[in-house]
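Weekly structure sync, notes
Attendees: PL, DS, HV (note-taker this week)

Item 1: Exodeoxyribonuclease 7 large subunit
DS walked through the input record. Source organism listed as Seohaeicola nanhaiensis. Sequence as pasted into the shared doc:
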Amino acid sequence: MDLIDDPAPGQNTPEYSVSEISGAVKRTLEGEFGRIRVRGEVGRVFTARSGHLYYDIKDDRSVLACTTWKGQISQLSVVPEEGLEVIVTGRLTAFGAQSKYNLNVEEVAVAGQGALMALLERRKKQLAAEGLFDAARKRKLPFLPEIIGVITSPQGAVIRDILHRLRDRFPRKVLIWPVAVQGANCAPEVARAIEGFNRLTPGGAMPRPDLLIVARGGGSVEDLWGFNEEIVARAAAASAIPLISAVGHETDTTLIDFVSDMRAPTPTAAAELAVPVRVDLIAWADSMGARLVRAASVGVRLRQQRLADLSRALPRKESLLDTARQRFDRTADRLDGALTTGVQRRRLHVSEIAGSLRPGLLNRMIAAQRNAFQSRARSLRPAQLQTRLSAERDALARLARRLSIAASAQHQHRVTALASADRMLATLGYQATLARGYAVVRSGGDLVTTRADAARHATLEIEFADGQIDVAQTGARTVRKPKAEPPPGGQGTLF
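Item 1 (cont.): predicted structure, written out as C-alpha cells:
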C-alpha cells in the first residue's frame, strides 16, 4: 500500500490573480457601501489639467481621498475649499491599479451654518486685504441713467417690483439679463452677466447700460450663497459700470454688497436709488422757474426805482439850455457894435502905416537891397562852383555804378531763388502727380474726395495731366484745355 503525503497546510486555499483580488475588493466596496455620506474637513484641494477635482476629507485620525469628475463639478452647490467642514455624498470605489480606494463625490454641502459663516469671514478678509472693499474705489451713481441693466431671475416678484418702481418714479429703458439666483449655476451666471454688460459697446445695437442692479429676494444663507462666491465679488469689483447690490432683505448681507458701488436693502430700494422721482423733478424745475421769474421781476422793479431816484436828482431838460440861450442872446446883441468897432480900429491902423510910407524912402530901401545883392554876387566865383560841381558829378557817377552792380546782383539772386522755388513747386505740385496717371476731381471749384461726395453733385470736373473734362450725370463730356502755366523763373498768377 503506497503512502501518500498529506498536502502542506494552506495549500487548499484558492489562488487569485492580482486583477481578480482587485476586482473582488472593488465589488465588495461598491456593493457594501454604495451611496454614502461622509462628514469631515476638507484637506488639500487639487484641480488637474483634465479638469477633474481631487481633494481629501479628514478628521483627527484618518484621511479619505475624494474625486469629483469634470462633468460633476458644475452640479456641486459648494466647491470644496481647504479648511471647510463639509458633508460629501457619493459612491465608494477602489482603484485597483494602485491598491487605493476613494470616494467619488457627487454632492458637497457645508456642515452647518457656522462653517458657512467661517468660510464667508475668510473670503471677506481676503478680499478686504486686496482693497476691494475700499470706499475710494467705489464709483458715484449717475443721477439719471438712460439705460439700466438688471441681473436677476426673469420670474418672480423681484423684477416686477423693480420695473413697477422705475415706472412710478422715472421711466427708463431696462435691459434684463436672466440668471439663476440660487444653486450651483447662480455664481457663474451672475459673474458672466456682469462681464457681458460691461463688454457691450456704448451706443451700439445693444446699448451698454449706464447702471447695473444685481437683485434677488430674501432667503436662507444657503439660498443666497451664490452671491458670496469669490467669482461674483471679483466680477462686481471689476465692473466699469456703477453697480447696485440688492440681494436679500435688509438684514441679509453677502459679499457682493461689500464690493458693489451701492448697497440697497431691497430690490425696490435699488430702483429708488437708481432714478429720482420724476414728479419731484418737475416740481423742483417749476419752483426754480418761479423763483427765476420772481427774481427777474424784483430786479427790474429795483432798477426802475433806482432810475426814478436818480432822475429826481437831475435838473429839468428845459433848465439845461436856459443859461446857454441867454448867453447866446447877449452875444448876438453885442455882435453888430463889435463888428463896427473892429472895422474902424483896423482902418485907423492902416492909415497910420500908410502915412509913414514915402517914394524916396522906398527908393533908398531898394538901392540898399540892390547894393547888398551885388556885393554878394561879387563874392561868388564860377570856377569854384564848376570845380565843386564836377567833383559832385564824379561822386554821383561812382554811386550810380555801385548801385547798378548791386541791383544787378540782387536781381540775379532773386531770379535764381525764384527758379529754384519754381522747380520745387513743379516737383511738389499735384501736376507732377497727374503726369503719373492720377486725376483731380472737383465740383464747382471744390475738391471731391469720396464716392458719396461725388454722388451728391450733378456735374464733376476731372483734371488730367493733358487737360480737363466736365462729366455730367448723363455721361456727357466737355473737353477743356489746361490752363497756361507761367514760364519757370518768371512772374505769373496762380489760380
